Amino acid sequence: MLKFILKRLAVAIPTLLVLIVFSFILMKVAPGNPFNGEKKLPKLVLENIYARYGLDKPEWRQLLEYVWNIVAHFDFGPSFQYRDRTVNEIIAQGFPVTLTYGCWSFVVASVVGISMGTLAAIRQNTWLDYFAVGITIGAQAVPNFVMAPILTLIFSLGLHWLPGGGWNNGAWPNVVMPVIALSTSYMANIARIMRSSMLEVLNSNFIRTARAKGLSGGRVLFGHALKPALLPVISYLGPALVGMITGSVVVDVFFSTGGIGSAFVNSALNRDYSTILGITILLGALTIAGNLLVDVLYAWVDPKIRY
Amino acid sequence: MLADSRIGTLAAPSAEIVAEKGRSLWQEATRRFLGNRAAMFCGLLLLGIVVFTLVGPYLSHWTIEKVDWPVLGKVKDLGFPSLETGHFFGVDESARDLYSRVIQGTQISLAVGVLGSLVAVVVGTLYGAVAGYFGGRLDSLMMRVVDILYSIPFMFILILLLIIFGRSFIMLFVGIGLVSWLGMSRVVRGQTLTLKNREFVEAAIAGGARPMTVILRHIVPNLMGVVVVYATLLIPEMILTESFISFLGLGVQEPNTSLGALISEGAQTMQYGEIWQLAFPLVFFVLIIYAFFFIGDGLRDALDPKDR
User: Fold this and answer.
1) How many Å apart are CA A245 and CA B260, to the nearest integer?
2) Distance (Å, whole) CA A235 – CA A77
3) Residues of chain B found within 8 Å of residue A12, distances taken between Cβ atoms
4) pTM
5) Which ipTM score applies to this complex?
6) Given an 8 Å threshold on Cβ–Cβ distance, is A145 in contact with B266?
7) For residues B133 and B192, is the Cβ–Cβ distance under 8 A?
8) Which of B176, B248, B199, B186 is nearest to A247 (CA)?
9) For the segment A249-267, what is each residue's pLDDT rounded down to a tens digit?
């Protein structure tokens, strides 16, 4: 197992480095920099500013120092836009919010998706199955940026049940709609995958044997069928996690929840390169770590994987 | 020539026995696809939408940029969909005709989807086929590169590209094209691995064909089934990506528009009761996505009936 994890890490770490270097180069080749705007600054001032942000050194030094500061001190440097804030502070402000509704969405999508898929499979061709399949097909073509306005229209403008936006320190009425908007399409996909894999497992020989032994329905389902049926779902959890992390941008923009997504979009519009870079790398690292975790989980559950 | 004429003389006496004409794989697939009612319906629907985007502009005298000045500022009361004013889908918040904007948005979204998928077909197929055919160290190197690129969250890279090099259709297309081929190359490589040990490939090699000839003439044509299915399912994904980017305001630039941008604008104004600004683009968007999903499913059933 340890060998397998190390092997996956051997891919994950270069990936992260490629991401950092690639984004850094992109930022460097961008035309102009934040300090040579409309107002011409005196040469001395400009030199001082460059020295402050380390822009006077050769580019390879800048890159090495940037990587080193991240790896050694977890320091993303100062923001180019807000002179008195560091990228770390900007991230620290938005990240807890994103983490809160992100985790909830992940839990909701997996738990509801898996139970819905399982129920549809064990009650195949009943109204319950048709209902689940209908929802699944319906939700598949409704991505988060379509779901968000529809939800607001119904629950906020129509029924006045939930506030249309804001975070309010994570009070539950503010969390509900972001979580639903973010998790629906992934929930639908998980349910669809779970249903088909559960159907396949339930029709296999070892389940027939388990039934023939006289085991109860519950024992057959939870003791024998669930684990193998979960495998395809687990391999989908990686892409789902990535989708939810990127989807947080939409949620932040639409519901004004003030998470890291809004910091990303704001810095994108302000050309605050160091903040964009920092957030890209942080979310990229999160994505890579999530994928790694899913891989390890898969290897742990699937007895057929040799490591 | 010699061999042909000999077969001809041998075959001649038995010519009266009329054998039932064999059907090729593609004929079988076409028959199965035509029998799939959901997929056929979606195919017709998609065809209808494409025809509509081509013919539609001639039915209205409004363009995507022309502002209907008398309506501006009174969009809620005057800008609703109506046949009399010529705004079949109403107007947007800047009093521009939504009908022509939806048509243009649909065109752009479809173009992005199809072009992105085309890049995947060309680059992904060649990359995967080369990696799978040559195998060994080249294969593991090429696939390791794909692994690394695959785990980079490309949505952020795409946004970064659009910010740094400015928003343009070309940049959007380049960004999407950069990553769309990754999945395809994996699928194609897997298929190539099973194909390359078959007799006809062996025969081609024995006949002195060079590696690239074997790949292009013998392997790639046999991959077409998988490639077509995967490419069809990739189109809605590309459209979703483009819409996501446009929703954030980073897609195509005004006055051009796309379905994602229209949905984003509509979502902002629905609270004033101008629901048509969200509804029309949304309907087109959802219909297109569904149509491609079902066509892709139908093609998969038709081309690879054992894989359910």
Assistant:
1) 19
2) 36
3) 151
4) 0.78
5) 0.73
6) no
7) yes
8) B248
9) 888 888 878 788 888 888 8
